[in-house]
Automatic annotation (TrEMBL):
The name this protein goes by in its record: Glyoxalase-like protein
Gene3D superfamilies linked: 2,3-Dihydroxybiphenyl 1,2-Dioxygenase, domain 1
InterPro entries: Glyas_Bleomycin-R_OHBP_Dase, Glyoxalase-like_dom
Superkingdom of the source species: Bacteria
Every Glyoxalase-like domain range: 2-175
Protein species of origin: Pseudonocardia sediminis
């Protein structure tokens, strides 16, 4: 199932301020130590959430590029998304059997502002087709981030555009991510578009 959307930004503070002004209630997530990033989160209902991630000015420059192409961005962008699975190894094996390389598993963690440590495993595909192919995440025994988030906003749908929509659909099937709320269509360039309904009923579009 869809776990979360990733909005990457070169300036976390300004993006959080802009989204908050638009009515998206974000809370501080915490730093990804050694990676050079930190995040803020907003609940989107049904166990899904929005992650806004950018450089952490309190960390030194990392030895390798920050994830989600953050170091190359000139403006915020809905860059990719994640699919949640209960067993990462099994999900990766099933995807490979179906002809998709989801990448190797990797352990990560961050500490929330209240001191609780969250730990998870994930896998980034070596080719995400411009961000439209999701990465896979397994939260294991860690409480899911949405357990501490308000559901003031709701994800109304995610649209994927790509020059090769049939290829994208095939990969989503391999990942078990071809759900009704994810629509794939043809576009000149890879693009993700999320429709979010705010608490007052207005709609916000993220790209």
């Amino acid at each position: 199932m869809l776990d979360h959307l990733v909005l990457a930004t070169p300036d976390l503070a300004s993006s959080v301020a802009a989204l908050t002004a638009d009515g998206i209630a974000l809370v501080e997530g915490g730093p990804h130590v050694g990676v050079g990033t930190r995040n803020h989160l907003a609940g989107l209902g049904d166990g899904r959430y929005l992650e806004v991630v950018g450089p952490d000015p309190e960390q030194p420059e990392p030895d390798s590029p920050r994830p989600f192409r953050i170091d190359t961005l000139a403006a915020p962008r809905l860059l990719t998304w994640a699919v949640r699975v209960p067993d990462l190894d099994a999900a990766l094996a099933a995807a490979r059997d179906a002809g998709h390389d989801p990448g190797p598993g990797r352990a990560m963690s961050r500490r929330r502002p209240d001191g609780e440590l969250l730990a998870w495993t994930l896998a980034f595909p070596p080719d995400d087709l411009g961000g439209v192919v999701p990465f896979v995440i397994d939260w294991g025994s860690t409480p899911h981030p949405t357990a501490s988030l308000d559901d003031g906003a709701r994800l109304a749908g995610l649209t994927i555009g790509h020059p090769e929509p049939d290829r994208v659909r095939s990969i989503l099937r391999a990942l078990g991510a071809d759900t009704a709320d994810v629509v794939v269509g043809e576009s000149a360039e890879p693009v993700l578009t999320a429709r979010i309904v705010l608490a007052d009923g207005t709609e916000k579009v993220l790209v």
